[in-house]
Amino acid sequence: MPNAKVLPLLESDAVVPCCPPLTERPMTAEEAESAARMFKALGDPVRLRLFSAVASHEGGEACVCDISDVGVSQPTVSHHLKKLKEAGLLTSERRGTWVYYRVEPSVLAAMGKLLAVPAAA
Amino acid sequence: MPNAKVLPLLESDAVVPCCPPLTERPMTAEEAESAARMFKALGDPVRLRLFSAVASHEGGEACVCDISDVGVSQPTVSHHLKKLKEAGLLTSERRGTWVYYRVEPSVLAAMGKLLAVPAAA
DNA sequence: CACCTGTATCGATAGACGTCAACATAGACA
DNA sequence: TGTCTATGTTGACGTCTATCGATACAGGTG
């Protein structure tokens, strides 16, 4: 049963239909505009640490209080989380006192596909 | 006796020893600094188009003259190509009149791994 | 109600970035 | 040599961005 196993997150059509792999054909201006937004969001060390902290946290979600120890002030943390949210990489939800952020797996997968390297050397 | 052909340390899974997948554990400040440089390089629409144009070009390399039609001036194209080079995403070589840029597949692969989504849902 | 804690927003500032015109450099060719 | 083309560099300018302190908002507790 070769096809009994479905790749969990990568096959979904829910994946943001951004663009074909970078190596497939030259991106159009619109595609580049859209994809660059996501790369840009991860192009800051603080945001990358925040995102990684959320992504690697148990259950793929984390309270701000769990991840805000990245060496910048609280307003700055909040600012970066907002940017990641605007880029579609994170979603947030308030539960009582705390706010929880979680990763958007489909977007992550879409970015991974963009960087896919063709099998042939 | 010298080897006729030595494979660079850049192939295989050894890739650039940047960082584990974003979802594996929180990145350290140093890892984030390094990885953010690469994402940042792709975080500009013009650079993304240039990179995609090179990556999708025949043989994985392209002359500047082949890809410089992205709607900005020639100095700006040169500036962005330099940035991509500094980020380790492209290499360049002059051959006669023209300068050819080619992608660094190992770096691309490393970025892809960074974004790898765990198989388990 | 008042108070405390966690998080977001505001306003200001310093520095980074994208862009261009002008100029410099490298190679081809006569 | 000189000139032409292709590409890189420089300097300047306007915009974006990361950061902070101060403040506002939300929800829990007493």
Automatic annotation (TrEMBL), chains A, B:
HTH arsR-type domain location is 27-121
Q: What is this protein called?
A: Metalloregulator ArsR/SmtB family transcription factor
Q: What InterPro entries would the database entry show? A: ArsR-like_HTH (IPR011991), HTH_ArsR_DNA-bd_dom (IPR001845), HTH_MetalResp_TranReg (IPR051081), WH-like_DNA-bd_sf (IPR036388), WH_DNA-bd_sf (IPR036390)
CDD domains xref list: HTH_ARSR
Q: Which SMART domains match?
A: HTH_ARSR (SM00418)
Do you know which Pfam families this protein is assigned to?
A: HTH_5
Species source reads Streptomyces macrolidinus
Superkingdom, natural source: Bacteria
Which key words tag this protein in UniProt? Answer: DNA-binding, Transcription, Transcription regulation
Gene3D superfamilies assigned:
Winged helix-like DNA-binding domain superfamily/Winged helix DNA-binding domain
